[in-house]
Amino acid sequence: MKREIKVALAGNPNSGKTTVFNNLTGSHQHVGNWPGVTVEKKEGKFTYQGTEVTVIDLPGTYSLSAYSLDERIARDFLLHETPDVVVVIIDASNLERNLYLLCHLLELGTNVVLDLNMMDVVENQGIKIDTSKLSRILNVPVIETVANKNEGMEGLKVAIVTAAENKRSPTFKIDYGKVIEEGITELSELLKDKALPRGYTLRWVAVKLLEADPEILENVESLPQAQQIQKAALECSARLERRLGYDLETALVERRYGLLEGLVRECTERHLGVERRHEISDQIDRVVTNKLLGIPIFLGLMWLSFQLVFTVGSPLAGLIDSFFGWLGDTTSGALEAIGSPGWFSSLLAEGVISGVGSVLVFLPNILLLFLIIAILEDSGYMARAAFVMDRIMHALGLHGKSFIPMILGFGCNIPGIMATRTLKSEKDRILTILVNPLMSCSARLPIYVLFAGTFFPERQGLVVFSLYLMGIVLAILVARLFKSIFFKHEVAPLIMELPPYRLPQARGVLIHMWERGSLFLKKAGTIIAGGVVLIWLLAYFPLHAEYASAQSLIGKLGSFVAPLLKPAGFGFPQAAVALIFGILAKEVVVGTLGTLYSAEGVALKAALLQHFTPLSAYAFMVMSLIYIPCLAAIATIKRETNWKWTGLAVGYSLILGWVVAVLIYQIGRLL
Ligand code: GDP
Ligand code: MG
Fold first, then answer.
1. Strand segments (E) across 529-594
2. How far does the centroid of ligand 2 lie from the alpha carbon of residue 59, in Å?
3. For 617-657, what is each residue's pLDDT tens digit?
């Protein structure tokens, strides 16, 4: 008879779960959603020696507290679906921190296989892990793997199937010290004959009661003598805190980490070179995360990045521009020669080629920006940036961790918004989502590059830098404002560990760059091409009107909205139309201008010089930065929150964009 078992992969984010999952299941996988939420659920199958194994890739979590959405999903699954085996995949180069989750699982009594992944990194760091000792102390099977090279997967499969056959509860117990253990015993006694929900162990529930875990407190409510238990738990916690002299939750966390520290010291050996590497890392950090220097260094690096994006990117952009100019001329020439109707060649040359071309011209700049972001991420600097910004974020009542989704927003606001799932508090999450669209995503870059290159050729880098900075400052101010209106609460302290610096690997960096860059290309081929065709249609009709003139449909639409924009200095139809269609995707702003002026590159710049002054151009860039999240971002905000917050995000950004653009234009004129 065929045996069937269910296995869950658990681990911190970025420990290699998905890589292991793909190795194990190959193409036999299915991606859906967890019930009721939009977090992705991956499920797959493999067969090993007659056992059919269903594998579930859980969201990445650091612990099993029911704080963040991801943690709750993972925990609910482990508690209620009771998989036969849980493979805890950990980044072995970061043993102590990664083992924390394992601690929780062992406490829960789960049947665990420990997968020490990233053993290649461990080796490079000159660290030796005594796997058999670790396995002996923890009393769980331990497997070493290098998932991205598909190494160790056979061993993992054997371990999974074996563990499923001889199910056992772990014997490893965290010793919380005399005082806390007394409390645990006391509560366990009280809970002893109660029908605990399936999958819960006595000790675990007792510990969670001491931690005042909200979900467990709720669970307890359905038990007989609920009030008595709750009262006892509260009394017990208070008593323990008095005896310990400090916060009980902190005490529990500290005991676990203390234990892990000892365990890791026991089972690892470091070579001399590594100490040195850490020393160097520490020395760099002393400067980079310094109280006074940290923020100037962060800003300096950003400024340098933009200089690089322009000095290297712009000549390349020129090449692409000439190519599209040639393509447009050749296409309309060829179409004329074969006698195709005039509207068709206008659609192709003025619509599609000008529109899409005017956006694609910025591909080199965008790839360069992504390259720099990838290098900063892979080297470990981004984690420092978040750490440095934590002080400011804290002063403003936000969690330092909120800065990471904001940095991600520089690439694209959508992953930025989704990354807020890692934030513990729902309030932090909503605030961070609301301000994320103020981060200048890469779709704004073509607008900045076009306008800064046209109106501030000598200071492109500086101008663009000022826009990125303005986005960050506004985000912080807006978050502050909304916090004081909608929520008033304490923030959790930042417990962030800084990974050691690494020399970024060319391959990894290029892959990251390409992953993001190809999204931009895909967008150019779909939304942007569609948008410019729509705009061409509106500019071409009605038939007797001149292309894109005031009599065309688009001219009428533009003239209708343009007066609103007059105080900001760009109250003419083309700008209005570009902004309206920019809601589809911000790149469309440039695509629209290209289509309306039937030009890209140098010719487009010439057309803009006739309509904008440097001041109104700057106001226009500011408006493009702020005025509304793009359609996809709006949809993501709705998915992650509700209509109320989505409406607020759209409404405040429209008003704020207009106000700031008008202020800049009006004050600029006075000066
Ligand atoms: P998840 O967040 O846990 O699902 O992690 P992923 O599977 O997405 O992996 C995160 C990153 O680590 C990816 O870039 C992988 O290629 C890389 N990775 C996974 N396993 C290993 C490994 O054993 N060694 C090294 N050096 N990198 C790995
Ligand atoms: Mg994953």
1. none
2. 7
3. 999 999 999 999 988 888 889 888 889 999 999 999 999 99
- What's the gap in Å between 60 CA and the centre of ligand 1? 12
- Report the interhelical angle of 226-244 vs 248-267 (nearest 10°): 70
In the numeric block, the tokens 């407190």 are attached to 217
Which residues form ligand 1's pocket by a CB distance below 6 Å?
A: 11, 13-19, 60, 117-118, 120-121, 146-148
Residue 663 has pLDDT above 90, yes or no: yes
Last residue of a domain, one of 139, 165, 191: 165
Pocket residue to mutate for ligand 1, from 87, 129, 148, 509, most atoms within 8 A of Cβ = 148
Domain shared by 182 and 161, yes or no: no
9 in the same domain as 47: yes
Residues 579 and 647 in one domain: yes
427 plus 522 within the same structural domain: yes
d(CA 559, CA 378): 48
27 with 99, same domain?
yes
* Model confidence at 493: pLDDT above 60: no
Number of domains, the chain: 3
Band of residue 494 on the pLDDT scale cut at 50, 70, 90: very low
Query: For atom 24 of ligand 1, which residue has the closest CA?
Result: 118
In a domain, 497, yes or no: no
CA distance 654 to 634: 13
Same domain assignment for residues 354 and 463: yes
Judge whether 496 and 386 are in contact, CB under 8 Å. yes
Query: For 308-320, what is the mean pLDDT?
Result: 81
* Ligand 2 centroid, distance to 381 Cα (angstroms): 22
Do 115 and 159 belong together in one domain?
yes
CA atoms within 13 A on the CB side of 311: 8
**Distance (Å, rounded) from C-alpha 316 to C-alpha 322?**
10
Q: What angle do CA 306, 308, 313 make, to 5 degrees?
A: 100
Domain that residue 111 falls in = 3-165
For residue 17, which atom of ligand 1 is closest to its CA? 3
Residue closest to 591 by CA, chosen among 460, 447, 464: 447
CATH number at residue 248: 1.10.287.1770
Residue 147 Cα to ligand 1 midpoint, Å, equals: 7
Tokens coding 650: 């759209």
Report the residue count for the chain: 671
Residues 252 and 319 in one domain: no
Model's pTM, two decimal places?
0.56
- Asked which of 124, 144, 165 is the last residue of a domain, the reply is 165
pLDDT digits 0-9 by tens, 55-86: 999 988 888 876 778 888 888 888 888 899 99
Instruction: Name the token pair of 551.
Output: 């009599």
